[in-house]
Design goal:
Strand order of the largest sheet: 2-1-5-4-3
Largest sheet: 5 strands, antiparallel
Number of helices: 14
Strand content: 15-25%
Structural class: alpha+beta
CATH class of the largest domain: Alpha Beta
CATH superfamily of the largest domain: Histidine kinase-like ATPase, C-terminal domain
Radius of gyration: 45 Å
Length: 504
């Protein structure tokens, strides 16, 4: 008996021996600690339900009573309020029989507090309930599909979006495949879903054009697909989130169209303005020539020599104005032309040096400072187009410095990661902030010369765009202007360096 008592005292659960009257006969050390008594003899004879549960009668589902009634071991979980808090206990009641006797008057009751374990088990349940509440009340469509693409759950917003309403769950869940259907396949969404499931990575699509089940091709959405994993790490589905962005996309398209029409309007006004002057000249001088001819025919002119002299002047003026119209149209065709850019291997520093040699900076007493990097890789560009870009920008800088006593132009080239950059700066009059967003528009110019049509920067922008490059401008009135050109470096040449000695 001493060895048996030692074993029970060593157990990490409370062990009590009670009789049919629910009177405690013996407790082990763990049960004694729970009772807050120091002497086990003081517990003997006390009712277990009063001592342990602070009740005045046995529990309705008392495991000890069940064991006394059935003679079998009883397993039960009891949730009891103790000291104002709910506690959960696992109870095992075992008949305490003497050898082969079927009769017994005592029960061994083992009690283990499993409150903490229950809280851990129920935490995911509570988390899932919270997730469901969030999904059900979300204003965006949320649903899940299995690895084969079949719907496994949908939220109310998704049900409304499908137009199926209350029947959505019945029709979709377990039946409808969101990957292998005509609509998802046609718009290409099924490919992204398969990729998310196979690569086990989140996929995000912005303003994605989707063909709805009603055949509507004007539906746009933000789509997010998040792979779902089982405990063993295997993918068991995809969480899909859809936000309807149709109205926003339509609004953006409308704004873009309005901006485009406004640009077209400004372009048309500029063309009309630039063509109006030479056309007016042509009209006026052709009328003068016609009047002169009529008077000459009527013998009322001032003599044949003067007639031919005046007609030559009129026709010469008409000819110049006509050529001016021709040049305007030619420049417009250059601006709108999409073909003609021929890409080849270009060394930016070499092109810059060639352009600088064409410009007489000393004539206008302009000091030019060049800081050309020696580690530039070759780029793929149209040499003539790039030359035209540099020539336009440098000529603009020269024009800005003609009235400045100490004009300076600086030219700098650098290699930044996947791009070659060219910075051209001057200390001229600068560009006013209110017209900064118009300088790349066709026919916009701040120059007073009639020879300038305002197409230089527009052509620069267009040439660079077609070659994959970019141009930015920074300027402050009375302080100067800086143009920054960025030209892409082919991926296979990003690590190359330009050796000045290797170009001959």
């Amino acid at each position: 008996m001493t060895n048996f008592k030692s074993v029970l005292d060593a157990m990490p659960v409370g062990v009590s021996i009670i009789n049919r009257n629910f009177e405690i006969q013996w407790v082990n050390e763990s049960a004694l600690r729970h009772s807050k008594e120091e002497d086990p003899s003081r517990l003997k004879g006390k009712y277990c339900y009063m001592q342990n549960l602070q009740k005045d009668k046995p529990c309705d589902n008392c495991p000890a009573q069940t064991t006394f009634d059935t003679g079998k071991v009883t397993h039960r979980e009891l949730t009891i309020e103790l000291n104002g808090a709910e506690r959960c206990f696992q109870v095992i009641a075992t008949p305490f029989k003497q050898k082969e006797s079927r009769d017994f008057s005592l029960v061994i009751e083992m009690v283990r507090d499993i409150t903490g374990q229950k809280m851990i088990q129920e935490k995911p349940l509570h988390s899932n309930e919270l997730n469901k509440i969030v999904a059900d009340n979300a204003p965006i469509s949320i649903f899940t599909i299995d690895v084969n693409g079949v719907f496994t759950s949908i939220n109310p917003a998704m049900a409304r979006q499908t137009g199926l309403g209350d029947k959505a769950e019945e029709i979709l869940i377990g039946r409808f495949n969101w990957i292998n259907n005509l609509y998802t396949t046609k718009c290409g969404l099924s490919d992204y879903i398969r990729k998310a499931l196979s690569d086990r990575e989140i996929v995000r699509l912005w303003d994605f054009p989707f063909i709805t089940y009603g055949g509507d091709r004007t539906f746009f959405m933000n789509f997010t697909g998040v792979p779902l994993f089982q405990a063993d790490g295997k993918t068991h589905g995809l969480l899909c989130i859809i936000e309807d962005t149709t109205e926003r996309v339509k609004a953006q398209a409308l704004l873009a169209q309005e901006a485009k029409m406004a640009a077209v309007g400004r372009l048309a006004a500029s063309i009309a303005h630039n063509l109006n002057n030479p056309l007016a000249t042509i009209t006026a001088n052709s009328e003068l020539a016609l009047i002169a001819y009529r008077r000459f025919s009527d013998n009322t002119y001032y003599g044949a020599d003067l007639f031919w002299k005046d007609v030559a002047v009129y026709l010469g003026t008409v000819n110049k104005a006509a050529y001016r119209c021709t040049n305007i149209i030619a420049d417009m065709l250059k601006l709108s032309k999409r073909e003609g850019i021929v890409l080849g291997k270009i060394i930016v520093n070499k092109v810059l040096e060639e352009v600088c040699d064409e410009i007489d900076f000393k004539k206008d007493k302009i000091k030019v400072t060049k800081k050309l990097s020696t580690d530039l890789p070759e780029i793929m560009c149209d040499g003539r187009a790039l030359q035209q870009v540099f020539l336009n920008l440098l000529n603009n800088a020269v024009d800005a410095l003609k009235s400045k006593p100490r004009g300076r132009i600086s030219i700098k080239t650098e290699h930044h990661h996947s791009a070659v950059t060219v910075k051209i700066s001057d200390n001229g009059m600068g560009i006013p902030g209110e017209i900064m967003d118009k300088i790349f528009e066709p026919f916009f110019t701040t120059k007073t010369s009639k020879k300038d049509l305002g197409l230089g920067l527009a052509l620069c922008y267009e040439f660079l765009r077609e070659m994959g490059g970019k141009i930015k401008v920074k300027s402050e009135p009375a302080k100067g202007t800086t143009f920054l050109i960025s030209l892409p470096v082919p991926a296979d040449r990003e690590g190359e360096r330009y050796d000045p000695g290797s170009t001959g």
